[in-house]
Amino acid sequence: MSEKPPRVSIIIPSFDGYRGGLLPKLLEDLKKQTFSDYEVIVQKGYHRQGRAINDGVKKARGEIVMTMDDDTVPGNRDLVERIVAAVDSDPKIGLAGASCLPPRDASEFQREASRQIPRRFFPVVKKTIDSDMVQHPCLAARKEVFLEVGGEDEELIRGLDPLLRHRMRKAGYRVVIVAGTWVSHPMPDSFPKVLKMYFRNGRGSAFARRHYPERIYELGSGFEGDDFAPKKSFASRVFRRVWSFARSVVDLEIYRTGTDIAYALGFLYETVFVRSGPDPGKGHGV
């Protein structure tokens, strides 16, 4: 008799399969979850997150596929159980994710940086809400629905989350943050490392705009009532960035100001000086 397949397949892209010890810690944390009917698929050696996830889905035996990053920290022991229950509760839910909080052992720098920098913090919600904060550090979908919308984009370096959310909504599905769930997606442990990350993010954004402008979609606030507009003009995006920068300066938010500058410099560098050659994702595997 063949082994019964698990209900859930947890797919974790990890370039080196270790991530400085964070991946082994995540695997140990998963063993403590109240939900145990799952398999873990670690996808090693990929330079593209989208390709790593798609190949993981091909291997997946579960009817629900869930992604986590190799540095994800589950916030509550019933995280997987709650997300699976949400997916089971409504066939119109296409993507289900969790809120994002700093880890319990975060430094004061990491906590303050998470508070200042957009989309690094989202409070736990008391009811399941439609949201643009569903991101790869923790999201789940029925495998058949994931394949129905075409899976992940395999060429983009940046912008995978908004593109997948757009595909789900375009197909008529909801994208939700599940009540009572949260994970941590830790900030780097120093400001120079954060600046380096956002410089690379800026390069990745410019790379996508140059090669795949039709795949760039808007990042919403994530809160209920957001219009989740999939497309806005480049001019409006620039204005939003400038306005955000001005507010961070006025509010003396040095971490947000610094990351805005680093992102802009990365975007400018990729746009002006890198017209051909290797893309900014090479050497920075998932």
Brief descriptors of the model:
286 residues; alpha/beta; Spore Coat Polysaccharide Biosynthesis Protein SpsA, Chain A; 2 domains; 8-stranded mixed β-sheet; 9 helices; 8 strands; 40% helix; globular
The end-to-end span amounts to 37 Å
Record field, number of beta strands: 8
Structural class: alpha/beta
- The level-1 CATH class of the largest domain: Alpha Beta
Description:
- The structure is a single chain.
- Strands 1, 2, 3, 4, 5, 6, 7 and 8 form an eight-stranded mixed β-sheet that branches.
- The chain has two domains: 8-184, Alpha-Beta Complex (Spore Coat Polysaccharide Biosynthesis Protein SpsA, Chain A), CATH 3.90.550.10; 191-272, no CATH class.
- It is α/β, with parallel strands linked by helices.
- It has helices at residues 22-31, 49-59, 79-89, 108-116, 143-148, 160-170, 191-211, 234-250, 254-272; strands at 8-14, 38-44, 64-67, 73-74, 93-100, 129-130, 139-142, 174-184.
- The termini are far apart.
- It is globular and about 55 Å long.
- Helices cover 40% and strands 16% of the residues.
- The model has no long low-confidence stretch (mean pLDDT 89).
